[in-house]
Amino acid sequence: MTAEAATSGGEQCDLASGGAAASSIAPLNRRSLHDEVVDRVRTLIVEGQLAPQTRIHEGDLGKALGVSRTPLREALKVLASEGLIDLVPGRGAVVRKLTAKDVREMLDVLVALETLAGRLACAKASDEDVAALRRVHDEMMRYYRGGNRLEYYWRNQAIHAGLAELSGNALLALLHQGISARLRRIRFIGNEERDKWAGAVAEHEAMIDALVARDGARLAGVIERHLEETWRRVVDKL
To answer: Using an 8 Å Cβ cutoff, are 85 and 93 in contact?
Structure first.
């Protein structure tokens, strides 16, 4: 047996017995094809390449993405659960179109959830968690200054989701996730015009300042104003 083989065999014994070698191995960070397809189709919807009321032709889309129908169908089921598409008998997957009433009602609920989340986060979140959310904000601002609206948008959404998580209330975070998923396209188009985008950025600056200061009342007020302005930024596009 070579020295290399002996070393290999020794490592296998350590791993099999749960020794120190096993605890020192970092887990693989590899995204599945399923996750890749879900993210790609979600982005196509958010950016408007798959427009509202568009029927998704599985064969054509699968060919464009370079995947078979099976992973695409599974991805469409996930996006249907998020409220981005409807699975219509006889027609298949259709990109959902939200009405003005749909959007207004969901924003009203988000106001209640996010203002509560802000108050709870200011009271409960650790300094480390607040600092982590601040870093996401700073990254978002770099994309804003660089004019990268899509990457800005994903960090923006991560901040809203992160605030819900910092509330420490699992039910609140779950409800917030469900509503936010349905509003993805709507919130993206709200920043199409430069002045509207700048307004949203100013509101986010005020939000992070209030969170860092742990001023729950101020943060709740900024969030309420931010979501009301979100409605004004999108209502003429519905």
So the answer is: yes
CB 162 within 8 A of CB 140: no
What is the tens place of the pLDDT at every residue in 24-60? 554 544 568 899 999 999 999 999 999 999 999 999 9
Pairing of strands 85-88, 92-95: antiparallel
The pTM for the full model equals: 0.79
Instruction: Give yes or no for a contact between 234 and 190, defined as CB atoms under 8 angstroms apart.
Output: yes
Place of tokens 């999108």: 234
CATH code of the domain made up of 33-95: 1.10.10.10
Domain ranges of the chain: 33-95, 100-237
Separation CA 177–CA 109 (nearest Å):
12
What is the assigned CATH class of domain 100-237?
mainly alpha
Q: Is the dihedral of CA 89, 93, 99, 102 positive or negative?
A: positive
Q: Which amino acid is at 207?
A: M
User: At a CB cut-off of 8 Å and minimum separation 6, what does 60 contact?
Assistant: none
